[in-house]
C-alpha cells in the first residue's frame, strides 16, 4: 500500500486540500486509501495519495484547479461498484469521493425531474421517486451502493434497458467540472434544446476522463403498473430468439433476460429458492410486462401457448403476485452474487440482437474447445443484445494462472466480437480492464479523435488518466 | 447570384469534382445554385461555387479531401427545409447535396433497424417502416421533403416528441466523413455499447459543422394502436398546464400540443376545415393517446369530465375515426403553412415545462407592450416545453423594416429565455439565424469548448463554416 501521503513532498498539497474541504474531509489512513482506491474488480493494488471528500461543486472546482496546478492525477470515486477498474487509484492519484455529496433536491412534479448530487445512491433515487408516485427505471444488482455520478460516467445499463434505456436516457442536465477547472451547466433540464453541440452527451460514459460530474438533473417517469413475469424453459438459443420476436411483435415488454441451466442450478443451491418448474431445460428466458388489464393477460397467455405449440418453449410459469414476481427475478438477479465464490472471469459483450445466436454459439465453441476444463455460465440481456460470459475458476487452478489463461481467451472472444461488429464493453465501460481491447470495437481514427476530445476538456491530462486509453 | 463557377480560378476544382462524381453530378447552373444554396429561411442570397451530387460514402470522402486540400468551404445540403439558415451557401461554398443518396437497405425485422443513406426523405422512411409493419415516429410538417441526414444534423423534433423523443433517440448508428476526410462508423446499430466516448452523439445536432453524415442506422418501433385525439378549448394558460398534469399523471400521452384562437381562425379560413366545436376559446390543447381498449377510452372520458368540472376545459371533442383524427391534427399542423402568407418572424424557444406559463406570459407582455401593432400567433409543443412564437408582418410595413424591428424583439425575448434558463433554439438549430444569440443559452466556456471540439473534427475549418458560431 502507498505511503505517499506521509512523504514530505505531498504535505503542502494535503494542507491545501484541507484548506479547501476541512481537515476531516481529507483522509490518508490506510483503511480509506484501500477502500476508496479500488472498485469491484479487485485486480489492482490500491495506492492513492489521499482521498478527499468535497461537499459542494465549488469545493470540487477548487480541488481540480489545485490538481491541475500540481499536475496531480484525479480518480473520481462513486460507489466503486464498477467491473472494469474505472475507479482504481493505483498510481498515487488523488481520489475525489462524492460520499458526502448525496442530497436530492428541487423535485418538480410537472417536469418530473429532480436534482441529484453526484453521490446520491441509485436506490436512494429509486425510493425518492417512489415517494413522489414516480419511477426511476434504471436498475441493476449494485443499485444499493452505486452512485448516480458513477452511473452517468459509465452510462449504466442493467435489467430494464429494453423498455427504459440506459442511464443516458434519464439525464436531463449535468453540472460538471472539466479537467480545466471550468464549471459547466449542461442542458439544465430542458427536453428540447438544439442550441449547439450537446456536450452533456460526451460526459455520459466518459468514465471521468473529461471531468467530474458534480450534479445531475434526473428525469423520472410514471411507475409501471402490475409488472408480471414469465420464466420459460427453452431447448436452444434459436428458440429464445423466436420467443423474443413473437412476444416483441405483439407486446410492450419491460424486460427480456436469459440464463442457462447451470446458472439456475447454482442460484437454487445458493439461495434455497424453488426452481421455477420441475423440468430442467438448457436455457431460460425471463420476460416481463405490464399486466394492465385482463385483455393483456389473455394476450400474454395466448402468446405463451403459441410458443409452446411451435416447440420453442418446453415449460413455463407466470407470476401471480408481487412475491412470485420478485422470486422469479431473483433467479436471474442472484446469479452474479452466487457465482462470485468461483472467482469468475467476466465478459460483458454485445452485438445487434439478430446476430446473438451465431455470436453466442461461436463464443461457446471457442471457449469449450480451448478450455474444456472451464465451466461457463451464460446470462444476460437478450433484448439488448448484451451477453455476460462468465468463466468459473476450477478449484485446482491458481488464481493468477486462471486469469492469465482467461486473458488469452478474451483476445479470441474479442476477435469474434470484432467479426460480429459488436462491443467489447456493452455496459461495464472500458476502465483499465478493457483498454487494450478498445480497438476491437473502435477504429484507430476514432481512438485518435477520442484522445483529442479528452485534450480539449482536460488539457493537463489529470482526469482519471490511463482509463479507456493511455 | 454568384458567377464564381465560371471564373477561371475555380475551373480546376470543378474538373476534379467531375472526375470524382461524373460531369453530370456537378452543377453550376443558376437554377441549381439558387435552389440548393438556401433553405426555408430565404433571408440570405444564395451564392455557392457549385453543387455536387455524390452517390456513395467514398465519393463524399474524396470530395471532402479535395475541399480540405483547396481550403474550400462545404455546405451540406439535405431537403433544405431548415428554419435557421444551416444549409445556406452565400459565400462561394461548395454545396454537397445528398439528393442521389436515397437508398434504404438492410432492414432487419429482429433488430427493427434499417440503413438509410443521408438523402432518404423522412416520409420515405415512414412509409418504408409502415410496409414492414413498424413505425418511424419522428414527424413534422416538412416530412415530405426533409432528409434523414438533415434531420440528424439538426436533431429534428416535431409533434411526437412527448412520447417518442427527438431524432437523436432513433439513431442506432452513423457513418460520417469528418472534416479531416476520415470515414467513421459510429456505434454500428448496437443498443448497448459503452466502449469509449459516444462520438455519434456529437454529430447529432452539429448542423454539419464537424463532418458530413453519409448513412444512418435508424431504429424503428411498433406502430401505435388506434391513435385518438381530443381538442379541448381552454380559458387560459394555467388551465392548459393543469390539464396536461392531470392527463399526464394517468395516461401515456403520445402528443400534447397547443394553439391559440387566432391560429385556429386563420387555419379554418385557409383550409375550409370545420371548427372543432362551436364555442371560441382563447387557447386549444390537442391531446393524443392510444385507445388500446374500452377501458382506456373510459379513463380518457373520465379525465376529460373532471377537467371540465374543475373549470379548466370549456368545451371539447374526441376523434371517433381516423378521418376525424387527421382533421383535428390539421388544425394544428396547418398553422405554419397558413401563416406563411403573412411573412411571419418565427421564434422557436423552450424552457422546462413547469415554467412555461410564466415564460409565455412574460414574452406576450413584452411583445404586446413594445409592438402593439404586431399580431402574435402562438402554437407549440407544451409537453416538451417548446413554444413557437410567430409575429405576423402588418400589411403596411416594409419587409426589411419588419425584420429589423423583429430582431430587436428577439433580443428582448432571448433575455427572457435566458432568465428562465431556456433555449434560444429548441428544435430548429442555430445555423446563421441564431448564432449571435447562442450565448443566451450557452456559457462562454461552453462556446469555447464547442469551437475546440470543432477544431478536432474539422481542423481546416471547411465544414459549414460560420454556422452555430463564427
Automatic annotation (TrEMBL), chains A, B:
Keywords: FAD, Flavoprotein, Oxidoreductase. Pfam families: FAD-oxidase_C, FAD_binding_4. It comes from the Bacteria. Residues 44-223 form the FAD-binding PCMH-type domain. Its cofactor is FAD. SUPFAM superfamilies: FAD-binding/transporter-associated domain-like, FAD-linked oxidases, C-terminal domain. PROSITE patterns: FAD_PCMH. Belongs to the FAD-binding oxidoreductase/transferase type 4 family. This is FAD-binding oxidoreductase. It comes from Spongiibacter thalassae.
Amino acid at each position: 500500500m502507498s505511503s505517499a501521503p506521509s512523504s514530505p513532498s505531498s504535505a503542502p498539497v494535503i494542507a491545501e486540500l484541507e484548506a479547501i474541504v476541512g481537515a476531516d474531509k481529507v483522509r490518508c489512513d490506510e483503511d480509506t486509501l484501500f477502500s476508496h482506491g479500488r472498485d469491484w474488480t479487485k485486480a489492482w493494488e490500491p495506492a492513492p495519495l489521499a482521498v478527499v471528500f468535497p461537499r459542494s461543486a465549488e469545493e470540487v472546482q477548487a480541488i481540480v484547479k489545485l490538481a491541475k496546478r500540481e499536475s496531480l492525477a484525479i480518480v473520481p470515486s462513486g460507489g466503486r461498484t464498477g467491473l472494469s477498474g474505472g475507479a482504481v487509484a493505483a498510481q498515487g492519484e488523488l481520489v475525489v469521493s462524492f460520499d458526502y455529496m448525496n442530497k436530492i433536491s428541487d423535485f418538480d412534479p410537472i417536469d418530473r425531474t429532480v436534482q441529484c448530487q453526484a453521490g446520491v445512491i441509485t436506490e436512494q433515487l429509486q425510493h425518492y421517486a417512489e415517494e413522489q408516485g414516480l419511477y426511476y427505471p434504471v436498475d441493476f444488482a449494485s443499485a444499493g451502493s452505486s452512485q448516480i455520478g458513477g452511473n452517468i460516467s459509465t452510462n449504466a445499463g442493467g435489467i430494464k434497458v429494453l423498455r427504459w434505456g440506459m442511464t443516458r436516457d434519464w439525464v436531463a442536465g449535468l453540472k460538471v467540472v472539466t479537467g480545466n477547472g471550468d464549471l459547466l451547466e449542461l442542458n439544465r433540464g430542458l427536453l428540447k434544446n438544439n442550441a449547439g453541440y450537446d456536450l452533456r452527451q460526451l460526459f455520459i460514459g466518459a468514465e471521468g476522463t473529461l471531468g467530474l460530474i458534480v450534479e445531475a438533473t434526473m428525469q423520472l417517469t410514471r411507475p409501471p403498473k402490475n409488472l408480471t413475469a414469465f420464466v420459460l424453459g427453452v431447448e436452444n438459443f434459436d428458440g429464445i430468439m423466436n420467443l423474443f420476436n413473437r412476444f416483441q411483435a405483439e407486446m410492450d415488454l419491460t424486460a427480456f433476460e436469459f440464463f442457462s441451466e447451470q446458472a439456475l442450478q447454482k442460484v437454487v443451491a445458493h439461495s434455497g429458492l424453488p426452481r421455477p418448474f420441475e423440468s430442467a431445460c438448457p436455457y431460460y428466458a425471463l420476460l416481463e410486462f405490464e399486466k394492465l388489464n385482463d385483455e393483456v393477460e389473455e394476450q400474454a397467455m395466448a402468446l405463451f401457448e403459441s410458443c409452446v405449440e411451435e416447440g420453442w418453449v418446453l415449460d413455463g410459469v407466470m407470476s401471480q403476485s408481487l412475491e412470485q414476481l420478485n422470486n422469479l427475478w431473483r433467479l436471474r438477479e442472484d446469479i452474479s452474487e452466487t457465482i462470485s465464490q468461483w472467482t469468475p472471469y467476466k465478459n460483458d459483450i454485445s452485438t445487434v440482437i439478430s446476430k446473438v445466436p451465431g455470436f453466442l454459439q461461436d463464443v461457446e465453441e471457442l471457449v469449450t474447445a480451448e478450455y474444456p476444463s472451464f465451466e461457463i455460465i451464460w446470462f444476460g440481456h437478450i433484448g439488448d443484445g448484451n451477453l455476460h460470459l462468465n468463466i468459473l475458476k476450477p478449484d485446482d487452478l491458481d488464481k493468477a494462472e486462471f486469469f492469465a489463461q482467461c486473458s488469452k481467451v478474451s483476445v479470441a472472444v474479442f476477435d469474434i466480437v470484432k467479426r460480429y461488429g459488436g462491443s467489447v464493453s456493452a455496459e461495464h465501460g472500458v476502465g483499465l480492464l478493457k483498454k487494450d481491447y478498445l480497438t476491437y470495437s473502435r477504429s484507430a481514427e476514432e481512438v485518435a479523435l477520442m484522445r483529442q476530445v479528452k485534450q480539449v476538456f482536460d488539457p493537463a491530462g489529470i482526469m482519471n488518466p490511463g482509463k479507456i486509453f493511455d
